[in-house]
Design goal:
two-stranded antiparallel sheet; 2 domains; single chain; flat; 111 residues; alpha+beta
Length: 111
């Protein structure tokens, strides 16, 4: 993210671009290319998770992918604010998003 041209002047664009590049690299690492046919074989089916919190002046930017969670505590713990929404496949919206993107759900928990 900090290597993006948009950083630090356009934090949202830098975060989005950084996440996209990280995902592309992860997907590249999860596939093996057959040198003869050029076909790709998936060698890793698990996903990844990450969360980024960037505070610029009075603005707090939060981005997350996968099952990550961030909270902000202030006042010595007297105030706690959720900065992210969990991406759990047991959540109806998340389940639908995974399936619509061509993904599969291998295990689910109720927690």
């Amino acid at each position: 993210m900090i290597k993006e041209d948009a950083f630090p002047w356009e934090p949202e664009a830098a975060i989005r671009s950084g996440f996209k590049k990280a995902e592309s690299k992860f997907l590249e690492m999860c596939q093996a290319k057959d040198e003869v046919t050029g076909a790709y074989t998936v060698i890793e089916r698990s996903g990844s998770c990450a969360i980024v919190v960037l505070i610029v002046g009075e603005i707090c930017y939060t981005a997350n992918v996968g099952d990550s969670r961030a909270v902000l505590s202030s006042g010595g713990g007297s105030s706690v604010v959720a900065l992210s929404r969990d991406h759990k496949p047991s959540d109806t919206d998340e389940y639908k998003r995974i399936i619509a993107a061509g993904g599969q759900i291998y295990q689910t928990t109720t927690a």
